[in-house]
Amino acid sequence: MSRAAHDQNLHLDDYFPYLLNRAGSRIAEAFSAETRRRGVSLQMWRVLAAVNDRGPLRMGDLSEATSIEGSTLTRLVQQMERKGLVERVRRDADQRVVRVVRTEAGRRIAAELIPLAMDYEARALEGLGAEDVARLKTLLRQVYANMDRQAR
C-alpha cells in the first residue's frame, strides 16, 4: 500500500500516538487538579516525585528523569526554589556539581501527592491484570526509548 493510500485510511481512534496522548492527557488533566490544590504544577510534581524517588539529582539527571527540557527545567527549579520546595546545593568535593534537593515543604507536598498519584494510576489501570500492567509499562518504556533514539 502506498504511503498516500495508507494516510487516507488513518483511523484516529486506532492510531497509537493519538491513543497514548489521549490517555495521558486525561490522567494529567485529572491529577493536575490535585497538584494545583497544593500550589504546584504538574511539572513541579514530576520534579518532586523524581527527587523523592532518586534523592538529590544533578540538573541533567533530573531532566532525564522528568523528560523536561533543560532550559525549561532551570526556570522551573528557580520557581520551586522561590516557593521553598527545593534547593540547589553544591557538593563539597566538587563545587561545580549542583544537585537539586527537596526541602521539608517539598517533602510534605510529595508525601501528600504520592498516595493520590498511586490512586490515579490504579484508576487508569482498572480492569487490567498484574501481568498486563507490567507488560504495558515495559512496552511504554520501549516506545519511549524508540522515540528517544529518534530525537537524538
Automatic annotation (TrEMBL):
Q: What is this protein called?
A: MarR family transcriptional regulator
- Organism, as annotated: Minwuia thermotolerans
Q: Which GO terms describe its molecular function?
A: DNA binding; DNA-binding transcription factor activity
- Keyword terms: DNA-binding, Transcription, Transcription regulation
Ranges where the HTH marR-type domain occurs:
13-145
Source organism, top-level taxon: Bacteria
Per the record's keyword annotation, is Hydrolase included, yes or no?
A: no
GO annotations under biological process? response to stress
Cite the InterPro entries for this sequence.
HTH_MarR-typ, MarR/SlyA-like, Tscrpt_reg_MarR-type_CS, WH-like_DNA-bd_sf, WH_DNA-bd_sf
Looking up SMART domains in the UniProt record yields: HTH_MARR
